[in-house]
Amino acid sequence: MPHPSHRHELYTVAQVRALDRRAIEVLGVPGFELMRRAAWAALSSLRRHWPQARRIAVHCGPGNNGGDGFLLAALARESGLQVEVLALGDASTGDAVLARQAWKDAGGAARLWQVGGALPEADVHVDALYGTGLRRAPEAPAAALIEAIHASGVPVLALDVPSGLDADTGQVPGAAICAAVTVSFIAPKRGLYTGHAAERVGVLELDALGLPDTLWQDTSPDAHLLTAAQLPPRPRDAHKGTNGHVLAVGGEHGMAGAIRLCGEAALRAGAGLVSVATRAGHLFALNAARPELMAHGVDGPQALEPLLARASVLAVGPGLGQGAWSHALWLTALDSGKPLVLDADGLNLLSCEPRRFTQPAVLTPHPGEAARLLGGTVAEVEADRFAAARTLADRHRAVVVLKGAGSLIAAPDGRLDVCPWGNPGMATGGMGDLLTGVIAGLLAQGCDAWQAACLGTGLHARAGDRAARLGERGLLAGDLLAPLRALGNGLDE
């Protein structure tokens, strides 16, 4: 298992390969020995997750990932399992040559995959086709094998990386294994934690192959996984004035719900006071539904300015719209110089009028909004979410939360954290409005932009997971408010 000091560190593929070379060249661990340790780790994982399995099919590619598979096959046969090996080709490379020979010496045979051929009967399929080596779509024969494995309905154990998944970006450029379990080796690859990886990785385990802590010396991780956190307890003499005043700006005609969710989330996150600047027609509904929000009808910049003067933090964008009223409030709010969180139409307006922020600022785009800010397409954003988030943070001098499966939090100095929580039930209207309010509420209580973005993203996602215990489908944004309060106070429900 990985050393505790490294288990939340994420690395690029190039960094992991450098660690692998360091283990061989500096620490003196032969490559074949690393392969043998990976095979033992994989067999242990298989036994834990499928203790009743008696037949396994191991699918081996030509490289070192295939070598892991050949050695796993030999160990599994030695332990009493029925094993069949299906190979993509009749030759292997590097240390995989020795692994293939070890399988042959143990009496095993490797059947070559033929497109349209039948798969072996198995209780578990083992994916040892490509590992980290593939950055493009698999070629036709491999793609056909991957599709046949999917069609079998048999669970898959992936070795290191589900084949076809880009371990650097989480992108899936073509056919890709959808694993029930992935056991990854040496160090966590960043692409296994974001984007399409959520659908492909399954249960993710990490085994450092018994390598010493010195392996990681002089190697700074590319990113980190968020860890569960909450604010410290409040001083006993705290009052509402010591916990900040959030002003939520938005709610064009017909969009009162967005700004209400934002304001209520700021309250539940602990802000002392929350005001709402919105259309006058929304005041009755807001006061009736949540009287703790101080709702104000605002018809233009002059009406907004006294509210800005009293606020310590702004949340701009939920339900804001992009018309003349919206633009005037947006511009006035941004020019105030107050710390702010910018979301939704606040980001769409920013894409038309870019600026670099001098005040503390957090931007919370989904991939579509990120694409507009970058002048590209959603596909380009999703092709490398890490690069997109870092580019936006640098361009606007703001902390950026790039939402989605495995949300990313990027700072202008290059720091990046990945959120390991959240679920598909959160893909529904209003969730982003909540996140905006949560982050603003944390800013109001004294967090800096980076702290508020990381803590707020984590609390929001963890609250979503708590709320999804009754099922993901049908989850509402408002369902997160109760668990959000509990988690923010470090309490179990």
TrEMBL record:
Its cofactor is K(+); Mg(2+). It holds the Pfam family YjeF_N. Gene3D superfamilies: 3.40.1190.20, YjeF N-terminal domain. Its EC number is 4.2.1.136, 5.1.99.6. Keywords: ATP-binding, Isomerase, Lyase, Metal-binding, Multifunctional enzyme, NAD, NADP, Nucleotide-binding, Potassium. (6S)-NADPHX binds at residues 64-68, 131-137, 160, 258, 319, 366, 433. Coiled coil: none annotated. It catalyses: (6S)-NADHX + ADP = AMP + phosphate + NADH + H(+); (6S)-NADPHX + ADP = AMP + phosphate + NADPH + H(+); (6R)-NADHX = (6S)-NADHX; (6R)-NADPHX = (6S)-NADPHX. K(+) binds at residues 65, 127, 163. AMP binds at residues 403-407, 432. Residues 223-491 form the YjeF C-terminal domain. Binds 1 potassium ion per subunit. Residues 16-217 form the YjeF N-terminal domain. Homotetramer. Bifunctional enzyme that catalyzes the epimerization of the S- and R-forms of NAD(P)HX and the dehydration of the S-form of NAD(P)HX at the expense of ADP, which is converted to AMP. This allows the repair of both epimers of NAD(P)HX, a damaged form of NAD(P)H that is a result of enzymatic or heat-dependent hydration. In the N-terminal section; belongs to the NnrE/AIBP family. This is Bifunctional NAD(P)H-hydrate repair enzyme.
